[in-house]
Design brief:
Length: 587
């Protein structure tokens, strides 16, 4: 009987040799480990290590999968390799393609791509890199646009880590009691620092506020708003907002939100002292020291700026900054902005709500004894009736509540024009009342009527380049102008004279927007003769004139006056560190 006969079968040729070799290998494996106890079964193999935890929920992963399967050509290996190489160059300086396990079936390959992104060391960055790759290679496809929307929602670019941001939004949505938008607005006002902009439209839900604040970026150093290095880098505004919001929520919901703030601060590497300050935000007494140090100054100015987004486009970026006016100049800027550009046709509507939305700036402005509202305008808006913007929901005109003037944004942004500007301003304030009145010249388009006999000289414009400059050279004491016509940015004949005067440094100009009788305006200015510091109080006196007129009377001159009052000393300037002065040898 053969050795295998007991098993009922005959080994094939060479089977005995293979069987013996197999036994030798088994004995070799056993020699490397402790021999098992007699009669015991061999130990089971160790379980495989668990896969790393995913970044997204199963539903979110399935949504990504569906969006990617809709992209044309992504099932083709050559195109997928191109996408992975493109994404890898954004994720790795070495340009290593995003690693994805190979599968023969196209849908399996796409699912492997979802898993590779989900388990990447930085899943949000990997998803954004994949989105950028597809946008660059197939950006004109509708399916790619849909995928980009999904990617932006799952990995929003911003201050907060994506998983934590989604957890915050889920908890806000899941709270038993809806978070009032009014409470969120108050929390945001307490969280915003002086000079910092939240860049919200004012129509967002609480979740949208969190998303937009997370996506906000600090102003770059050297931004002309004067922010320089932004202290918000230490504790982003979105964290301060969430900490303030936690303080006004019911205790259980507030604790959940405070837990998120603490974990986010730790993940962002925020220092311990700042984390402690975040934990105590909104609690009684937390801001007493800060409020005590903010005693209102004697003078404040609110500057509202409208800047053209592109020449001739008639679309404007709108922001406002409140300053304390001190002996050293403007200080402590507090800035707000409208998130999206404003079209020319929308300006009147925006004027009804803008200052209402910036009620915190108006409240601080009211704390000071002396106030002024200044509109910094480009050439195209110098004739806009800014004094008719509203301060509240009860149709209270800003020009009735405050002295309101316009300023030239173009001159402010042209340093080459500043020397003559400052010289003429000093000349205005150094002269006595009689000389000041003589220093107001007039520009006219037509022959002046007999009733028009102003104190200063009159230049009849003929439309020649340089005629205002030559006239100012012949009248060096001229520091202000009256226009005997309405300024019109679209009419060169009515615009170039004032623009040339502003370029030459004239800081004060006044005109009627209704193109009415200039003699009436000249007579009104002559009333200042009996007022001490006559032209220095012109903005305040103009407010009195406006208040005396019936607000809806379009024929009243006082409802049609524009005052350009451009104070070169009322400009916010950054203070760079002074370089050390080199000492002479031997000192």
């Amino acid at each position: 009987m053969t050795p295998e006969a007991g098993h009922g079968r005959t080994p094939p040729p060479g089977g005995v040799v293979r069987m013996l070799l197999g036994r030798v290998r088994q004995s070799g494996r056993g020699a490397a480990a402790a021999p098992p106890a007699a009669g015991s079964a061999p130990p089971p193999p160790p379980p495989p290590p668990p896969p790393p935890p995913g970044n997204w929920t199963p539903a979110e992963s399935a949504e990504l999968f569906r969006a990617l399967t809709a992209v044309a050509d992504l099932h083709r290996p050559e195109f997928l390799d191109q996408v992975l190489a493109f994404a890898g160059r954004q994720l790795d300086d070495a340009g290593t393609p995003l690693p994805v396990a190979y599968h023969a079936h196209p849908r399996s390959r796409i699912w492997a791509l979802v898993e590779a992104v989900d388990r990447h060391r930085d899943p949000d960055a990997a998803l954004r890199a994949l989105a950028d790759a597809l946008a660059g290679l197939r950006g004109d496809e509708a399916a790619v646009a849909a995928f980009l929307d999904v990617a932006a929602r799952l990995a929003p670019p911003g201050r907060l880590p994506g998983p934590r941001l989604r957890a915050v939004l889920r908890d806000l949505d899941g709270m038993r009691a809806r978070v009032p938008v009014s409470a969120a607005d108050q929390s945001l006002r307490r969280a915003v620092r002086p000079g910092e902009s939240a860049a919200l439209r004012g129509t967002e839900t609480v979740a949208e506020m969190v998303l937009r604040l997370s996506d906000a970026r600090s102003p770059a150093p050297g931004d002309q708003d004067g922010a320089g290095a932004d202290p918000a880098d230490a504790d982003p505004l979105v964290l301060r907002f969430l900490a303030e919001l936690a303080a006004v929520l019911p205790p259980e919901a507030g604790d959940v939100l405070r837990g998120h703030v603490a974990r986010i601060a730790e993940e962002l590497g925020i220092d311990g002292a700042t984390r402690e300050a975040l934990a105590h935000r909104g609690q009684p007494g937390a801001e007493l020291a800060e409020e005590a140090s903010e005693a209102p100054p004697d003078s404040r100015v609110l500057q509202i700026r409208l800047r053209e987004t592109a020449p001739g486009k008639h679309e404007y970026a709108l922001d406002g900054t409140l300053y304390d006016r001190t002996a050293a100049g403007l200080a402590r800027p507090r800035r707000r902005a409208v998130g999206s550009p404003v079209a020319l046709r929308q300006l009147r509507d925006v004027g009804r709500t803008c200052l209402v939305d910036w009620a915190d700036l108006a409240a601080r402005l009211d704390d000071a004894d002396q106030v002024r509202v200044e509109f910094l305008l480009p050439w195209s808006l110098l004739d806009h009736p800014v004094e008719r913007w509203l301060t509240d929901g009860h149709a209270y005109l800003v020009g009735h509540k405050y002295p309101v003037v316009v300023r030239s944004l173009d001159r402010l942004e042209q340093p080459a024009w500043h020397r003559d500007w400052a010289h003429r301003w000093r000349s205005l304030h150094r002269t006595g009342p009689a000389a000041a009145r003589q220093g107001i010249g007039w520009l006219s388009l037509e022959a002046a009527p007999p009733s028009f006999t102003p104190h200063g000289g009159v230049l009849h414009l003929r439309g020649r380049d340089g005629e205002v400059r030559a006239w100012l050279d012949r009248n060096p004491g001229t520091h202000g102008l009256g226009l005997a016509f309405a300024y019109d940015a679209a009419n060169p004949r009515r615009a170039l004279g004032l623009r040339e005067a502003i370029c030459e440094g004239v800081p004060v100009a006044v005109w009627r927007r209704d193109d009415g009788d200039p003699a009436e305006l000249a007579h009104r200015l002559a009333e200042l003769a009996d007022v001490p510091d006559d032209f220095a109080v012109l903005p305040a006196r103009l407010r009195i004139w406006r208040r005396a007129a019936a607000r809806d009377d379009a024929t009243a001159m006082d409802n049609q006056l524009t005052l350009l009052w451009d104070d070169p000393e009322c400009v916010f300037r950054e203070t760079p560190l002074a370089a050390p002065t080199a000492e002479a040898p031997g000192r």
